Amino acid sequence: MKIHEYQAKRLFKDFGIPVPEGSVAYTKEEALEIADKIGYPCVIKAQVHAGGRGKAGGVKLAKDRDEALRFAEEIIGMHIKNIQTGAQGKKVRKVLVEKGVNIVNELYLALIMDREKAMPVIIASLEGGMEIEKVAKRHPEHIFKEYIHPVTGLSNFHNIRLSFKLGLNKTQRGIFSKLVSNLYKLFNEKDASIVEINPLIITNTEELIALDAKVNFDDNALVKHSDIMELRDIYEEDPFEVEASKYDLNYIKLDGNIGCMVNGAGLAMATMDILKYYKGEPANFLDVGGGTSEERIKEAFKILIADKNVKVVFINIFGGIVRTDIVASGVVNAARSLNVNIPVVILLRGTNEEQARKIIDESGLNFISEVDFKKAALKSVELSRGD
Ligand code: ADP
Ligand code: MG
Where do you find CATH 3.40.50.261 in the chain? Predict the structure, then answer.
């Protein structure tokens, strides 16, 4: 789960990580009120679940009241569109108004889970404010890492070693060390998957301040953190994904036009692979789960056909635990109640497949029932092209 910068900064504050004074505003009047309170210059920052806001015009430094009002007006309601927001972009519904800070040096600092090494890693660089992926590509030697064994945890030597590599002076080293320890504490206690500060700045008074804050959480651990769960902002999530999560459906929206309903993540991947192989484009990843019910099938079907890009639905269910006749009834009932006017290719194999096919054939619905994976995929691709 993702949260906004202003929420991440509140968490930082709770964990003793210095952030600029600031507060969130939903209207330009609110923004101005906050700006007046913290003084000028101040920064108006678009709050969306994506980075790269600065380059997209979503972060502006206001030197006085007039500018603060103008920038708040411009930014609230604007659309941020970049590689992180996807093709549709994200509408800005609120801004963070914070104190303009004097930057002497911008660093990069992050803590993420390294899945290959199965332990957290601290990543630091002198090239703060830049996209870290670009730094990693052009100058991998400018990136420093410290792996933290989960059993022994973080030690001061990790922090000190990093601070020397970053060329920090003695005062800065002390502050940095404390900051990293607090960041690690947050990362662990809140079950984060990423904590990123880009940039972490050094001021002219030798303070270290988190100017940006990104925190993502491990969804599987959210049950332990009701305080974090409250920070969820469904306006930032894909509406189809929000709907799917209500029914525990594992759904990810993609850009293609073949709606896929599959059971099991492995089969869902294989389905997407075969569609791609035949030059088709899946509109989504959807795993309805191993032991799915008729109701979930119905909800899944609803979500698929609500996506206006979808030109054809490909249902590919292997009945291992789930009975395919139940799937067939679910799909038929859903199609009847939903007035489906796009073609549906259906491939049901496994437990009770004969009964399932009978239900489909006798439904009177115009479904294309297949028994072969390759043929079903080819048919779906063909129909998605409209030929
Ligand atoms: P993003 O990464 O989404 O572009 P940031 O929060 O990193 O957004 O802001 C972009 C840039 O704006 C920063 O690299 C920094 O140079 C500047 N900036 C952000 N917040 C402040 C602030 N409070 N004071 C001064 N400059 C800021
Ligand atoms: Mg940033």
Answer: 238-384
Residue whose Cα lies nearest atom 16 of ligand 1: it is 129
Q: How far apart are CA 244 and CA 253, in angstroms?
A: 10
Give the pLDDT confidence of 168-199 residue by residue, as tens digits: 999 999 999 999 999 999 999 999 999 999 99
What is the CATH topology of the domain spanning 21-100?
A: Dna Ligase; domain 1 (3.30.1490)
Alpha carbons 196 and 17: distance in angstroms, whole number: 12
Q: Pocket of ligand 1, candidates 24, 59, 78, 99: which has the most ligand atoms within 8 Å of its Cβ, to mutate? A: 59
Q: Give the amino acid at 224.
A: K
Kind of pairing between the strands at 79-80 and 22-25: unpaired
Contact 352, 323 (CB under 8 A): yes
Is the domain spanning 238-384 CATH 3.40.50.261? The answer is yes
| Fold observed for domain 1-20+102-237 | D-amino Acid Aminotransferase; Chain A, domain 1 (3.30.470)
Is any atom of ligand 1 closer than 6 Å to the C-beta of 129? Answer: yes
Contact in structure between 188 and 179 (CB atoms under 8 Å): no
The SS3 of residue 41 is: coil
Cβ neighbours of 359 (radius 10 Å):
20
The chain-wide mean pLDDT, for the chain, equals: 93
pLDDT digits (tens, 9 = 90+) for 315-343: 999 988 888 998 899 889 888 888 888 99
The sheet carrying 258-262 orders its strands as 250-253, 284-287, 258-262, 312-319, 344-350, 367-370
**Catalytic machinery residues:** 108, 196
3-state helix, strand, coil in the chain (%, to 5): 40, 25, 35
Q: Decide whether any atom of ligand 1 lies within 6 Å of the 41 Cβ.
A: no
CA dist., res. 265 & res. 288, Å (int): 9
Entry pTM: 0.81
